[in-house]
Please model this.
Amino acid sequence: MTEHVQPAPGPRDQRPLLIGAMTLLALVMVFLAPMALDYYTVNILIRACLYAVAALTVDMLWGYTGILTFAQGTFFGIGAYAVGLVFTHYGFSPTTAVLAFLGALVAAALVAAIVGWFAFWHGASPLYAGVVTLVLPIIVVQLLYSGGTLTGSSSGLVGFEAFDLEIETWFYIAGTLAVLTTATLTIVVRSDVGRVLVAIRENETRCSYLGINAPRIKIVLFTAMAMVAAMAGYVFTCFGMVVAPEMTGLVFGTELIIYTALGGRGTLVGPLLGTIGIDGISSYLSGELPYLWKLIVGTVFVAVIILLPRGLIPTLGSLLGGFRRRETARVSGLRLRRVEPKGFASQSGAMALAISGLDRRYGSLKVLSGVELTVGSGELLSVVGPNGAGKTTLMRCISDGHERTAGHVAINGNGIGRLSPHRIVELGLGRSFQNTSLFETLTVADCLRLARTRWERPHLFTRSREICLPEAALRVVEATGLDAMLDHETRNLSHGMKRALELSMVIALEPSVLLLDEPTAGLTKPERMMVGSILVDLCRSESVSVVIIEHDLDFVREISSRVVVLHQGAVLIDGTVDEVVSSELVHAVYAGKGAAGQDERAPA
Ligand SMILES: Nc1ncnc2c1ncn2[C@@H]1O[C@H](COP(=O)(O)OP(=O)(O)OP(=O)(O)O)[C@@H](O)[C@H]1O
Model:
């Protein structure tokens, strides 16, 4: 195995040490604060720290993963009600305290898993997910109202016994929970998993074509964050010894979103400090200005959203110098490593790609009709045809089981049925897009590692420095100079570089069937030749079956072992390059005449 070290790797990554030092410093401050603060302020800060934990979960979901959720307040309330219900109806003891804690976690996890399943099933839009999380608080509040003496109805539950601790102890607990939650989540967002979360936010569709099961990841994250919020709610009620339906409601859920946006979403430290600051100030203002304080917070929110869309803490950090928000962590000393392929050609003995009777209609428009096609192992098939012939639609029908209207598609002998794109990737398919579809704020290294998710499980707490690629993908990376740009953000790459990156990503999947939609569009002649030779090599050395849509007939002639001409959604001719090039029918179609030879552009 050869190791390629990125030139000038720069200094070692100091961030883990920095996170450790900051966490320690924050814990020391938590320990010292009660000595310097009065009773009322300590009281307020306990509440603010616990609200901050809930806001951190909003930031993980919304700021990092792009899931706008109104439900985190409800999960906080579920944790709170677990305490209220157990202590009211079964009394307080160490056993019931443990039971209430476990009940809080289990109830929050169950509700979140069910809501997450509804909100994030394959094909659900972000708006739909937002609406589902909006409905949850409304339902939970109604259930609590109608719970009678069990839930205390609109009055909630009060007067139950709980832990008898000093206020300083509660402050230590709440402060430590806020600090440790921030530290843990900071490590997670800087890890390989953090990169996947940002990728889902940036381009969920592309994730699924890299074999990443985005809906499942979102459900797991939603459930985990619900449990964290419930933990904060548990501590809150043990301290306050009162629960009310409002603690699970929509207003509280929205306030958490406001705190997150004001503090600076996608930064963790922003929502933490934002919540502590705003909730702390609000507590004073609500006493001094009982009717005005919400109006003030609302006005500040609108002003910040318009004037400082990044939020208060990042803006303040930029003014003081040094703070630059990065979508994902930068890692120095990145290494490219050549690995033996685990995927590529299937040994099943079945046809690599088999399509029969494939139809695709959009309403009354019949785009594909009765397409029959097979591609053997190691074949390089070019699909050509005039604009609008249905070539891209054919690719969509092969790579997403929900796309076709009728017919059968099998990859390595496995029918795709109604499988989602990420499941079809598992069958051995890789697809690149007509319009480059990448993750704009991620780096080249991030994108390459994302493409390897199928083969290397992302770490939850660490970020790998190595990018392991099969020979063919490494060749594209090296030949195009991407290896010297591993830490460059994708949005800053030239068009040619983006195409090269997309090609290396799809090869990094090690597919046995590779669908490429105009991979050389916008490339220079030498770049096209390089891509052509890599594809031919891939077919020969790894027996990959490549299906390529191309308009450049010279390129097609050079690389193809077979050509299919698609016309008006049907296969017009399927043969060798020579057969297609010498076909009168094909000439007629490209000259704008119908398959029967009549001029299509001539008026009827
Ligand atoms: N979502 C859609 N809804 C309705 N019609 C569609 C949809 N997608 C594609 N079509 C129609 O299907 C036909 C085939 O489109 P397709 O993109 O597959 O053609 P193509 O052969 O790839 O063309 P090009 O070479 O220009 O990319 C076109 O007439 C197009 O307008």
Q: What stands out?
A: The chain has two domains: 15-249, 338-590.
